[in-house]
Amino acid sequence: MNEQNENSLPLHGLKVIEMGQLIAGPFASKMLGEFGAEVIKIEPPGVGDPLRKWRKLKDGTSLWWHVQSRNKQSLTLDLKAAEAQEIVRQLVAEADVVVENFRPGTLEEWGLGWDELSALNPRLIMLRISGYGQTGPYRDLPGFGVIGEAMGGLRHLTGYPGQPPVRVGVSIGDSLSSLYGVIGVLLALQERNRSGKGQEIDVALYESVFGMMESLVPEYDAFGYVREPAGSALPGITPSNSYLCKDGAYVLIAGNGDSIYKRLMNLIGRQDLAEDPRFAHNDGRAQHAALIDAAIGEWTIKHSRAEVIEALKEAHVPAGYPYTAADIVKDPHYLARQMIEQVQTFAGPLKVPGILPKLSRTPGRIGTGGPQLGEHTEDVLAGLGLSDEQVQGLRERGII
């Protein structure tokens, strides 16, 4: 992206200091960086963010790192040291946003809490993501995404009846919190345009998950109904399920619109079910989900997945199948919408997910992969006015 386009990005000129690690905080600042914010990521000297060693490694560094930390600068600081804390205060004095996801109270112990930092910079917006939030009886408990998913209600619903609860497969609790966090930052920036004042944004992992729980609580309040896991089905919405095909593959069919349902039943040769007045609307179909699912399954098992998908496409019935990574990277629709991009990293060229959301006039960008540990330390400190001798002294004392 050339300089003119770089300057046109929506968040160009925004300075973000990231003091988080692993997923929730860094995912939020990643999104801000993709749309033009300058993100300075603070990492502990010597080891860095633990995510550098998570999942599959190439040349000693996580491949995930090049997604989560793209477009960021890496500054190493031992935040337990008074000199490092003073450097943070200097950075914050010039910053727009601080992102952190330590356990509540940690930054306060270092003299870097909201009260201290907002006093230095009244325009500061501080995004704080934690397991249980900054207040309440559970605030001091450690909380990772898995715990937030459990407390928020998601883990109870994931899996099949009578079997142990399973995870979604990705760190969905952390990522949902990141998205809420970014929304909070954008809202606070908009309000700051009017008031000139920043504010603190308090995001809890369990609340981010709970916010996705649809009618879970109203159904319990009104009827005492406790929603239970339902495997691949969508309880109360019929038909919407996965069905086995002749070649052993599964297809997902969402025939739950009234007119779509009729087209689906006519396609599979079940005109009797298509015209049955009991099944004209979803509430009636939901009462007989097993009957309808069985009819669809009797049809899919006679055909290969490709045949089923093609027939459903012709009938304008929403359908698909569970994509693997191999399916994703070669899918023409993914490629046409630039959802698979190749970037140059210090570990070589690498395919990574594209940018979301898609803006028509000022789309985001991937400038670089994740930085090497401390790659930008000297540049950042020089920008604060520290001399080469001061930087060398900090390095010798293990502060950077």
From TrEMBL:
GO terms for molecular function: CoA-transferase activity. InterPro entries: CoA-transferase_III_domain, CoA-Trfase_fam_III, CoA-Trfase_III_dom3_sf, CoA-Trfase_III_dom_1_sf. It comes from the Bacteria. The lineage of its organism: Bacteria, Pseudomonadati, Pseudomonadota, Gammaproteobacteria, Pseudomonadales. This is CoA transferase. The keyword Transferase applies. Gene3D superfamilies: Crotonobetainyl-coa:carnitine coa-transferase, domain 1, formyl-coa transferase, domain 3. Keywords: Transferase. The keyword Transferase applies.
